[in-house]
Amino acid sequence: MQRTFGFIYKTVLYSFAIVLVLFALFISALRYLLPQLPDVTDQLENIFKERFRVEASLGSISADWGRNGPELVLHQLRVQPAADKATRVDIEQARILLNFWQSAGSLSLQYDQVQLDQLVLHYDMRDAELDDASSGIVLSDNLTNLLLNQLDHIEVTDSTIELVNLLGIQRAIDIQDLRWMNREQRHQGVGTLTFSEVTDNTLDFIIDIKGNDVSALTGQVYVNAHKLDISPWVQQQVVDTQINQAEFNLHLWLNFAQNQFTEGLLQLGEQALTWQVGQDQHSLRIPHGELKLRPYGNSGWRVNSNPLTIEHNNDSWILPTFSWEQTPRSTAMSFVDVPLAPMLELLNLLGSEGAAVSEQLANRSAQGTMDIALQQSLEQPLRWFAKGEQLSWGQIAGVPGLTNVNLSLQGQENRLTWRLDGNNASFQSDALDYDDAWALPYINVSGDFVWHNQQDWQLYIAPGSRIELEGLPIAFQARLQPVDGSVMVNARANSVNEQPIPAAVLRQHLPVVMGDNLHDYLTVAIQDGVAHELAMSWRGTIADFPYHNKQGEFEARARLTGMNFKFQPDWRPVYDANVVVNFNNERMHIVATDGQLANINAQRVDVVIPDILSGPDAYLDIQASIAGNATELQPIFNDSPLAGSLGTTFTELQLSGPLTSQLQLTIPLTDAPAVLAEGYADLSNVTMKVESLGETFTDISGRVRFRNDKVESDDLAMRWNDFPIEATLKTEQRKEDFYVDVSAVGNWALERYQPLLSGALPWQANFNLSLPTVGGYAFRWQQTADIRQINVQAPAPFYRESGTEGSFQLMVSGDQESILVNAEVDDFGLLELQLDSEEQSLQSGYMRIGNEFSQAPSPNVVRLNPRFMVDVNIKQMDLEAWQQTYQSLQQLIPEKTAASAWATRLRPDFIQLTTDSLNYDVVSLDDVTAVAWPSAEGWQARIESQQILMDVIWQANKADNNAIKIRADYIELNSGIAASENTIEQADTPAPEATTRQAPESFTGLPDIYIDCQRCQFDNYDLGEVSLHLSAADKVLTLERFSAKHRNHDIVANGSWALETNTKHPQTHLTGTFKSADFGEFLETYNVTSMVRDSSATIDFDLRFLAAPYSFDSKTLNGTVKWNLGQGYLNEVSDRGARLFSLLSLDGILRKLRFDFRDVFANGLFYTNFSGDFNIASGIVNTSNTQLNGAAGDMEVKGSTNLITRQLDYDLQFVPKVTSSLPVILAWMINPPSGLAALVIDRMLHDAKVISRLEYEISGTMDDPTIKEVARDSRAAPIPPEVRDNVDPNQSNNEQPQSGTDGASNDQQREPTRQPENN
């Protein structure tokens, strides 16, 4: 058994050895023979074509024996799926290793390994996307079986995959090594690859496939990149950025089933990028991320990302999801809600320019998110779309900043369509405002942008584009394109407002691009108003703007109404004007019409800036035609840079009245402009008030020219107090002051001052005004006049006739402290005044009237130290003439006028009068010395002369209680009437009528008058002690009290004088009482021949009539007179009694009031009482109780006298004492009661009877009374012989002649008449 086993063992061993030797020999022979194989390339090419259905070309074939068996080497092999396809495989060397033993065992070729070196797979995606799908790339089953089943191991080294997309763009993937293994149903490839264009680092990948059916393969592709350095590729993309690090880490899984990709996952590791721009370091890092892949469309992929955290420098932000859709025919990418700010900051990766933009954007607060989409298909160029909402960014590189806007962009190739819209947005640009953004309540702008290159592009803003600034909606369109290194602009814009645009809106939206000077100027200049339309047209290059040489045209125009426009900040505005604002190239022209400059009508104002962009040389030229009241000139220039020149001039020379003017202002637009103001003003009927003189000039006409501080006129005509003046005017700014010089001449007609003045007054004057730069002023007015042609109707020494030599000089000078006035008229009139300038109150003054000074001043001058003294020293003074002159002056100087105010202001406080003779009416005073001065009680005066010595106080310090109080030591006045004229007129002569005089309208202002005189005498009449008080109201002058007391005679009276009103007539009322212990003596004291002897008297009277006191009206006389004479007798009974009743006539009453009773009685009549009452009504005097109780009998009188018709109607009864003896009767006849007519006595004597009662009727008139006896009761009585013998029988029945005494008085023994006593 052992031997058998041994044999078998040796047999097998030897057999195996023999086989090995034979096989070795075979192999050796095969190794030797293989290189010697014949050229079979054509056969192999045919085999590829027939068996694998591919086009192949083979350069050469070689064979060798390898470690495991024979090796077949194919050189320069190219395989194409189809001859008409670009897809191909080029293999520099394909080494095929056969597995000898497996082949021998299976009796078929078994490939142990295939090594492909320098393989280039050129895959053109366009081959698979031809319209004819049947002509696409299709691999045969033999080929797929070869690759999946027959080749167990395939190695690929130093190979490249060239991918050509549908656009023809080729990308290369370098395969360093690939090991592909097939194990029945599982196929796996492991290798490394690199993207040489991107990085030098390699990526690891694994391909794991299950299944042998090429149409139903399932598996996964895995790619791993660890610390992939892509910095070289990134460096190539940027120019001036130093890429320091670009590291890429990822894991990619791609799953497929049924030969179709089903899903994929890209897992991002840490991605890091650092770079340097200049000296600034930047970094970008993505810590991790994840992207999912899904099949899309026909052989396409869709990649969706999860949010990615991106850390940029020191900030981090989230990139929301994005989508990438890739098909063989198209590529599409979309990003949603991409934050704008961080994306813009990544621009610093683009180099210095990008970094600069990024840095600027970092300071511009870019905000918002963008949705971005890109799409490119085979048939069309790349299209992209971007949309953002509520975007905000600051201005950058001339691009305006916007906030809260929506932006949509749509581009294709070199064309971009864009749209910008939004509500409540804002607009910021340094061309608009340096600091603040402009509000945009609404924006909707769209257009196109076409780009060819930097020198060929076009930006188009479509018609209908609209932006709405606050209150300013604007529609516009534009086209911009480059031309010769600049940009050509062709644009139009206009406002589309429905309501007028307020000026505040215009001010708010003035762009600073127009120049700071112009912008600042218009911001201040445009005050108020509304704009109705705005329009702009621009055609030209930006480089040539503002087209000084007409290379282009820029025009902007605005029409405004109710405009308030201020030339300068310190000028008053033109307001309520119609304005057209026009910008034409470099020129700005504003035309304002029908406006108001203050209260002056600005008919037309042209405001021109010749070159708005001339920088520091820019200036403003204003030309204005104005018309209005010249009063407004002063405040206009006071509120201007010309306040120190023209403003000061117009402050001093205040003008009012119509004015037309042409004004031109040249104002440099600098911080401290030197304004040039020039022009002229035409004056017509203008009024001017010279402030320093306080004088007003009217009807000024002429032209005044001015150029800054120089004001000139040589044809001024004006009137002062309606007197004509011709004048010239010059002003200039001197080194230390502003100087005004005025020369004036005139020739005044003085007829208006008649009767005081008449004739002509030629004169000349010069006025100088200095306004120092340090403040204050100084002036001088010097005037001389020739008064030879003047007539002066005034008391001496002012009286003069035309032709008399004379001169007048006036000089007024002053400053801010005081004003000096000096006036001289010949050598008899002098006035010197010093006034306070500010209050224009009197400080000191002196006036002299007369050729001589007073020899010795009044002691009161030293005591009172007056401020303004008036010294009057003339030979004679007619006070009435001076009063008339004063009244004439008062009429010439009405109250509440400037002259009246000056007269009040210049009231003297000491007046001294010295004259040899002072006359007033019939009163004459000799050697008069008078002084007057104000005191605490009022004005006081001391008047001394030969005739009077009195003190006068005028209390005028109380508005409601003015009074004049006179306290006289004595008053001895003489009427001056000749003695012959002083005799009492004859009884038959009627009294003269009262002189017609004009009653005053009111007694308002008339002071209370008090007169207290210790000893008063008028002519030879001694009035004794007199006291009087008058008071006045509006329409009533009241005699409060009148009293006169001389010896035992007193009279006390009061009364009133009421003026006429609308409802009442004027009225005079007088009431009082007269008392005398000896009435006859009282009458004789006043040189009145009296028939009353030894009789006291009491007379009460109350009378009134409807007229002034000086216009007695008998028709309206009413009142009562109650009189009573005590025991006494009547002397000198006159003629036959015909004048007895004159007591009751007006003639008699007036004469009795003058105490003239000489025409009543010739001899005497004794009585114990003689009294009665007179009742007067409407001019009719009635008495019913006039009675005389005489020694011889009693008499009673009743009746009336009509003072209007002078008719008499009386009944007289006389009852003799019948118990008396004849001597008593004779005594009665000698002394008849109440001056009974001589005719009655004669008849009684003729009858020679005893009379018991006599009744008479008295009629006729007061001038021709008629006495008729109507009844007699008598008895016979013896007549004394002496009586009967003395009676002339021829007179018994005839009326006796009238005389001062009748016939009866001739038979009566006369008593001696006492001479009147003067006391």
Automatic annotation (TrEMBL):
Residues 1265-1275, 1308-1319 have a biased composition (Basic and acidic residues). Residues 1265-1319 are annotated as: Disordered. It comes from the Bacteria. InterPro entries: YhdP, YhdP_central. Pfam families: YhdP (PF13116). Residues 1288-1307 have a biased composition (Polar residues). Residues 8-1267 form the YhdP central domain. This is TIGR02099 family protein. It comes from Pseudidiomarina woesei.
